[in-house]
């Protein structure tokens, strides 16, 4: 089938017009940069596709691989497989190996899920304490005056030791924790008003969707015209040279 050259050029032009203007992503980049400078870490907000049924019920939806958390139990179970090997090593050598492992990990991503299906994602250094996450939440939640706590699930387990760092807690390379107001310390009226949402402050909710705005599609380049391979050189067969007839010696004319 022969494709008209003019129609292919028109197709390429239409594809180029569909590409978003990179200048439209500048406000989103500026906003994210301002938030990072204000809090000293990368933060983004997005909405989850499924919600938990109640506050005390652990979500039972299937998540993608990057949502699964590496729990402290998994961490200690992994270390227990090398129990015999550790006994054979000196304490100084074990500490050196542990320090080497810690130095290789420079970032952990923590996601905090709220009852209204929104998720706050923030980056931390593994050596930071879990208390730094609580400090961040006190700055971004809509009602910081109400007592709250965070927990892991399933099963639901409140995180009480805030002096632990993320590395020791096993929150590597990331983890999901859940946000809840402390119903034992807050009146029912305040809880009812707070749970109507939103759970995050307005300027934080404004971060929702900014990641999509800065995703710039790479320009579509016209495909190079196929180059037909040059035909192989024709090798002409050399004909044997015509030999002159040789007269036999016995033939006498």
Q: Please, could you describe this protein's structure?
A:
This protein is 32% helix and 13% strand. By secondary structure, the chain is an alpha+beta fold. A six-stranded mixed beta sheet has the order 1-3-2-6-4-5. A hairpin with a 4-residue loop joins strand 2 (108-113) and strand 3. The model is unreliable at 1-19, 51-63 and 216-223 (pLDDT under 50).
Q: List low-confidence stretches.
A: 1-19, 51-63, 216-223
Describe the oligomeric state of these chains in a short phrase. single chain
Sheet/helix structural class: alpha+beta
Helix content: 25-40%
Large-scale geometry: elongated
Order of H and E elements: HHEHHHEEHEEEHHH
Strand content: 5-15%
Integer-rounded radius of gyration: 34 Å
Query: How many angstroms does the end-to-end distance come to?
Result: 73 Å
Count helical runs.
9
Please outline the helices and strands.
Elements: H1 5-17, H2 26-39, E1 43-47, H3 72-80, H4 83-87, H5 91-104, E2 108-113, E3 118-124, H6 131-140, E4 148-152, E5 157-158, E6 174-181, H7 188-194, H8 202-205, H9 210-213
Parallel strand pairs: 2-6
Antiparallel strand pairs: 1-3, 2-3, 4-5, 4-6
Structure characteristics:
single chain; alpha+beta; disordered N terminus; 253 residues; 6 strands; 6-stranded mixed beta sheet
Short précis:
With 253 residues, the protein is α+β, with helices and mostly antiparallel strands. The chain has nine helices and six strands. Strands 1-3-2-6-4-5 form a six-stranded mixed beta sheet.
């Amino acid at each position: 089938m022969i494709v008209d050259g003019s129609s292919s050029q028109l197709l390429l032009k239409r594809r180029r017009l569909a590409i978003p203007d990179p200048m439209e992503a500048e406000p989103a980049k500026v906003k994210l940069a301002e938030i990072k400078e204000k809090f000293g870490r990368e933060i983004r907000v997005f909405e989850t596709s499924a919600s938990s049924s109640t506050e005390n019920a652990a979500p039972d939806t299937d998540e993608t691989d990057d949502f699964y958390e590496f729990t402290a139990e998994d961490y200690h179970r992994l270390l227990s497989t090398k129990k015999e090997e550790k006994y054979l090593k000196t304490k100084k050598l074990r500490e050196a190996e542990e320090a080497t492992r810690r130095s290789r990990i420079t970032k952990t991503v923590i996601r905090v899920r709220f009852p209204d299906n929104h998720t706050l994602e923030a980056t931390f250094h593994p050596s930071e304490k879990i208390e730094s996450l609580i400090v961040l939440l006190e700055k971004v939640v809509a009602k910081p005056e109400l007592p709250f706590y965070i927990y892991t699930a399933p099963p639901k387990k409140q995180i009480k030791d805030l002096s632990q760092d993320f590395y020791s807690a096993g929150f590597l390379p990331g983890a999901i924790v859940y946000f809840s107001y402390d119903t034992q310390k807050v009146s029912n009226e305040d809880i009812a008003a707070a749970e109507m949402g939103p759970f995050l402050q307005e300027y934080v909710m404004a971060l929702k969707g900014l990641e999509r705005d800065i995703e710039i599609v790479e320009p579509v380049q016209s495909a190079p015209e196929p180059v037909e391979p040059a035909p192989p050189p024709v090798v002409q067969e050399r004909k044997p040279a015509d030999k002159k007839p040789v007269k036999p010696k016995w033939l006498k004319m």
